[in-house]
Write a structure and sequence with these properties.
About 55% of the residues lie in helices and about 10% in strands. By secondary structure, it is α/β, with parallel strands linked by helices. It folds into two domains: about 5-180, NAD(P)-binding Rossmann-like Domain (Rossmann fold); about 180-335, N-(1-d-carboxylethyl)-l-norvaline Dehydrogenase, domain 2 (Orthogonal Bundle). It has an eight-stranded mixed β-sheet, sandwiched between helices. The longest helix has 25 residues, at about 180-205. The N and C termini lie far apart (about 50 Å). Bound molecules: nicotinamide-adenine-dinucleotide (NAD).
C-alpha cells in the first residue's frame, strides 16, 4: 500500500485515536489542536495526556502547531472537533488544502442553529473538495487500544468513499462504503438521543434484558422512521451506522450520552450535571432538533419525546418510559399492518 500523508484537525479523544490507528496502517499523520499545550505534550511525551491518556502514540503521528502546515500535502483531511467548532476550525484552512484533498467529517451532530448534519456544511465550506462522512460504532478509547472497528464511509461520490476506505484498510479498521450520506449522518446523531434513554433505563429498569431489548429495538425503528422521512434510507439505520452505533454508544462505559442518562435517572437535573461535569453530551442538543424534525414530518417519536421531556425537567420514571414504549409498539403495529 502507498504511504500517504493525512491531516487531523482536532487532537481530542477521537482525533488522536484516529491519527494513531491510521499511522498504524503505515501513513504519516499530522495532527493539529486548538490547545497548543496538547501539541506540546504530544511532542514531548508522545502521549496526549489530556485527551487520550495512557496511549503511547505511533511514531508516524506528527504534532503540528500550525493548522495550515498540518494540512499541507495531505491527501485526506480529517475534521474531528465537536460540532460547535467544525466551521471555525475548517474555514481558515480551506485555502491551504491540496487541490485534490478529500475531507472526512467525524463530528456527529447538526451544524449549530440548523437541522442539517455537519457533513453537508463541510461541503459548503469547501465546495471544490470531495467530502466523506465517517459513521459507525467507533469508540475512540477502544480504537486507540487496537480494537478492530467497523466504519462506514459515506459520500455522494462512491469513488471518494472507496478511496478513503482503501486508506483505512488495515489492522484497526473494517471499512465499508455507502452513498446514503443522510442516513449515515443521521444514524450518528440519532443514536446519541436513544443512548441517553438507554442510560436512564439502566438505572430505572435494573437488571432487565427483556426491557433493554425492547427499548433498543423500538429506538432503531424510530431512528429509521425519522431518517427515512429526511431522505435517508431506513436500511442504513438498521445496519452498522445506526443499530451498530447505538449498541456501542448505548451500552459502553466510555459513552458520555449513556452516562448522562444514568445520572439524569439518578435524580440530577441537566443544569446540575452541566455544572458538575463541565460538559453536556451531544445528544442533549440533538434531542430538541430530532423532535422538531419528527414533528415537522409527522413521524411519531414517543421515545425521543420522552428524552426531551426528561431533559426539560420532568422526573424520569419507569412508568412514563413504559407508556412511551407502548405507544411505540402501537406505531410499529400500525405501520406493519397498513
Ligand atoms: N470520542 C469518541 O469516541 C468519538 C467517536 C466518534 C465520533 N466522535 C466525534 O469526534 C468529535 C470530537 O469528539 P472528541 O470525543 O474527540 O472530543 P474531545 O472532548 O475529546 O476533544 C475536544 C476537542 O475539541 C477541541 N476544541 C475545544 N474547544 C475548541 C475551540 N474553541 N475551537 C476548536 N476546537 C476546540 C479540543 O481542542 C479537542 O480537540 C465529536 O464531534 C464527536 O462526535 C467522537
Amino acid at each position: 500500500m502507498t504511504r500517504r500523508k493525512f491531516a487531523v484537525l482536532g487532537a481530542g479523544n477521537m482525533g488522536t485515536a484516529m491519527a494513531h490507528a491510521l499511522a498504524g496502517n503505515g501513513h504519516e499523520v499530522a495532527v493539529w489542536d486548538f490547545f497548543p499545550e496538547v501539541i506540546q505534550d504530544i511532542r514531548r511525551h508522545r502521549v496526549n495526556r489530556r485527551f487520550l491518556p495512557g496511549i503511547r502514540l505511533h511514531a508516524g503521528v506528527r504534532a503540528m502547531t500550525d493548522a495550515d502546515e498540518c494540512v499541507a500535502g495531505a491527501a485526506l483531511v480529517i475534521v474531528c472537533v465537536p460540532s460547535a467548532f467544525v466551521a471555525s476550525t475548517l474555514a481558515p484552512v480551506v485555502p491551504a488544502l491540496e487541490k485534490d484533498a478529500v475531507l472526512l467529517n467525524v463530528a456527529k451532530g447538526f451544524a449549530p442553529g440548523t437541522k442539517e448534519p455537519l457533513v453537508f456544511r463541510l461541503k459548503r465550506l469547501a465546495p471544490d473538495h470531495d467530502c466523506v462522512h465517517l459513521a459507525g460504532p467507533a469508540i475512540a478509547n477502544e480504537l486507540a487500544r487496537g480494537v478492530p472497528t467497523s466504519v462506514v464511509l459515506a459520500s455522494s461520490d462512491p469513488r471518494a468513499a472507496r478511496r478513503v476506505a482503501e486508506w483505512f484498510t488495515g489492522p484497526s479498521f473494517i471499512p465499508s462504503t455507502s452513498t446514503d450520506v443522510m442516513g449515515a449522518a443521521l444514524g450518528g446523531i440519532l443514536k446519541n438521543v436513544y443512548a441517553i434513554l438507554l442510560g436512564c433505563l439502566e438505572k430505572l429498569g435494573g437488571d432487565a434484558r427483556n426491557l433493554e431489548a425492547a427499548a433498543l429495538t423500538a429506538s432503531v425503528h424510530e431512528m429509521a422512521a425519522i431518517a427515512g422521512a429526511q431522505g435517508g434510507q431506513p436500511a442504513t439505520l438498521y445496519g452498522i451506522a445506526g443499530l451498530g452505533d447505538l449498541i456501542a454508544t448505548g451500552f459502553s462505559r466510555d459513552s458520555h450520552n449513556r452516562k448522562f442518562g444514568q445520572l439524569l435517572a439518578s435524580g440530577k437535573s441537566v443544569a446540575q450535571l452541566e455544572k458538575q461535569l463541565g460538559w453536556l453530551p451531544e445528544g442533549v442538543r440533538a434531542t430538541a432538533v430530532v423532535c422538531a424534525l419528527a414533528r415537522a414530518q409527522r413521524v411519531p417519536a414517543p421515545l425521543a419525546g420522552w428524552v426531551r421531556r426528561v431533559l426539560g425537567g420532568t422526573p424520569p420514571s419507569l412508568d412514563h418510559l413504559l407508556r412511551a414504549l407502548r405507544a411505540s409498539a402501537r406505531t410499529a403495529h400500525l405501520s406493519t399492518s397498513d
